[in-house]
Design a protein that fits this description.
The chain is α/β, with parallel strands linked by helices. About 30% of the residues lie in helices and about 20% in strands. The chain folds into 3 domains: about 80 residues, Rossmann fold, CATH 3.40.50; about 180 residues, UDP-N-acetylmuramoyl-L-alanine:D-glutamate ligase (3-Layer(aba) Sandwich); about 130 residues, Alpha-Beta Complex (Protein-Tyrosine Phosphatase, Chain A), CATH 3.90.190.20. The termini are far apart.
Length: about 425
């Protein structure tokens, strides 16, 4: 249990660090702030030299989830004192039911679907990796008293550091290779995802697909006594969003039933996926264009492209290729691949092109101008903008990239 009368250090002054700052202020706690890179004007900020000299004064280090604490890190000896923002919820939760959702692909969409379904009957809130925080509420206890169900999207970074938060339900959507620059290898990454079961209350269920269980049961220890499997078989279809939605709905069906068996999912209208997550942005003249800018993993981009059961499709790739994707080869069939950006050659090098062709472009706008010409030929039915790389080479984030793509398409293709 966290003791608020002890001294805290907030390490990393991003969104989570600022929310923790407000929480500690609201609870009259003693704390300092440190950030490796940001220049912060705040009377509580300390230097690295001061921190290293006074490090034993701190009982807890509240770390931004993405900061990797390795053996050469000055906090490594204090790993047992490391917390993240979500740990403080253990002090505030009372009667609320807590749902933890993790996975590589579709965490945000799944949280959104669950929220849409449960909010018809309960007061719900999504927090965590989804982008929302509640720690900064002036009266958090009062705020939580109005919530029945808290849905928490959990990244592998968060699960790697989490200590005190407890869950009533946990669901893993799927696992693909990702974040290996942090986890070093796929085994560690898989283990971080399955660590979600360690935070479940006794006899609380873990929801998995049967395929996920069979694929990873030899890699990690899975508590079969709490396991609830979804063995629904999904048939590949042309309509990509419907396929993903079908996967999401089947994954959460059992979870919803456990929470309230009276809720009938089939009678509830679930809205479209989140912005820039397999978002249908164009549907005219027998052509559909999807904006999947949120995809920063080449493995996932190829996977989704291969879900489209058509030989008349275009896949657009670009950005910064992740470390784990540089060591793999991906089969791609019956596809015209268009790549853009400084690493356009690297993307093509990672593909085994089967009955496929490719073109490379310096910038996305040049690619769209080319796209404008070939669309007029009406040879293609699907265009998937699923970059498969991080956006920071040319954009602030995937949202900025997705918005830019939408603007270009709106101008180029009437």
């Amino acid at each position: 249990m966290i003791k608020l009368n002890k001294k805290f250090l907030i390490y990393g002054y991003g969104v989570s660090g600022k929310s923790v700052e407000k929480y500690l202020i609201n609870n009259n706690c003693n704390f300092n702030i440190y950030d490796d890179f940001k220049k912060i004007i705040n009377k509580r900020v300390i230097s690295k030299k001061y921190l290293e000299n006074k490090i034993n004064q701190y009982s807890y280090f509240v770390v931004s989830p993405s900061i990797k604490i390795e053996k050469n890190h000055f906090l490594y000896k204090h790993k047992n004192k490391i917390l993240i923002d979500l740990d403080f919820l253990s002090l505030e939760i009372s009667s609320q039911k807590i749902l933890g959702i993790t996975g590589t692909e579709g965490k945000s969409s799944t949280c959104s679907y669950i929220n849409q379904i449960l909010s018809k009957k309960y007061k719900t809130k999504i927090i965590g990796n989804f982008g929302n925080t509640i720690l900064d509420k002036t009266n958090l206890n009062k705020y939580l008293s109005k919530i029945d169900i808290l849905i928490i999207e959990l990244s592998s970074y968060q699960l790697d550091k989490l200590k005190f938060l407890k869950l009533h339900y946990a669901l893993i959507t799927n696992i693909f290779s990702d974040h290996l620059d942090y986890h070093r290898n796929i085994k560690n990454y898989i283990s971080s995802k399955f660590r979600i079961q360690d935070f479940l209350y006794k006899n609380s269920p873990l929801f998995l697909s049967n395929n996920l269980f069979l694929k990873h049961r030899s890699h990690v220890k899975i508590d079969k006594n709490r396991l609830i499997l979804n063995d629904k078989k999904i048939i590949h279809k042309k309509e990509l969003p419907n396929h993903i939605r079908e996967l999401n709905l089947y994954s959460i069906k059992n979870l919803i039933y456990f929470i309230d068996s009276r809720i009938k999912i089939k009678n509830i209208n679930v809205s479209d996926d989140l912005s820039h997550r397999i978002q249908l942005i164009y549907n005219k003249n027998s052509l559909k264009i999807y904006n999947d800018s949120k995809c920063t993993n080449l493995n996932n981009a190829v996977y989704k492209n291969n879900l489209i059961n058509s030989s008349k499709k275009i896949l657009i790739l670009g950005g910064i290729l992740k470390k784990q994707d540089k060591n793999l080869k991906f089969n791609i069939k019956n596809t015209l691949v268009l790549t853009f950006g400084s690493q356009r050659d690297l993307f093509i090098n990672q593909l085994n092109l089967i009955d496929s062709n490719y073109f490379k472009f310096n910038r996305l706008i040049e690619l769209i101008n080319f796209l404008k010409l070939i669309v007029k030929l009406r040879k293609y039915e699907y265009i998937l903008f699923s970059p498969g790389g991080e956006s920071f080479d040319s954009f602030k984030n995937y949202i900025d990239r997705g918005n830019y793509f939408n603007r270009l398409i709106n101008k180029a293709i009437p």
